[in-house]
Amino acid sequence: QVQLVESGGGLVQAGGSVRLSCKASGRTLRFLNMAWFRQAPGKEREFVAVIPWSAGTSVYADSVKGRFTVSRDDNTIYLQMGSLEPEDTAVYYCAAGPISTLSVRTPRPYTYWGQGTQVTVSS
């Protein structure tokens, strides 16, 4: 079992930055992929970034590549968000899931989800 709690969201001006945190408790995060998704009103949940359990390459959505960075420190996952745009406004969710044949860019392989944190970018 894994419990995930996001924090760090809020109101930020366009061009600014914010750092989201996802604190995990319960089982170890070893052997789990950790990801960030976001969802705006009336839209599907959208993949943002994933950091695999094994040492390797993190994957980013094209829309955030070069602006966002995902990292891990002990039992906390972070999403550093820079050069924010109004289009980044959404509820951001942390997710964890085991290795599977499903694409990590979709919500399907993730077993555990946080409650989300709102990020609003104003201009």
Description:
The protein has 123 residues and is mostly beta strands. It is built from no helices and eleven strands. Strands 2, 4, 5, 6, 9, 10 and 11 form a seven-stranded mixed beta sheet that branches. The protein has a four-stranded antiparallel beta sheet with strand order 1-3-8-7, with no helix packed on it.
What is the structure about, briefly put?
This protein has 123 residues and is mainly β. It has strands at residues 2-7, 10-13, 18-26, 32-39, 46-51, 59-60, 68-73, 76-81, 90-98, 112-113, 117-122. The chain is globular and about 40 Å long.
Rg over CA atoms, rounded to whole Å, is 14 Å
Helix fraction bin:
under 10%
List the uncertain runs.
none
Q: CA-to-CA gap between the ends?
A: 40 Å
Q: Give the total of beta strands.
A: 11
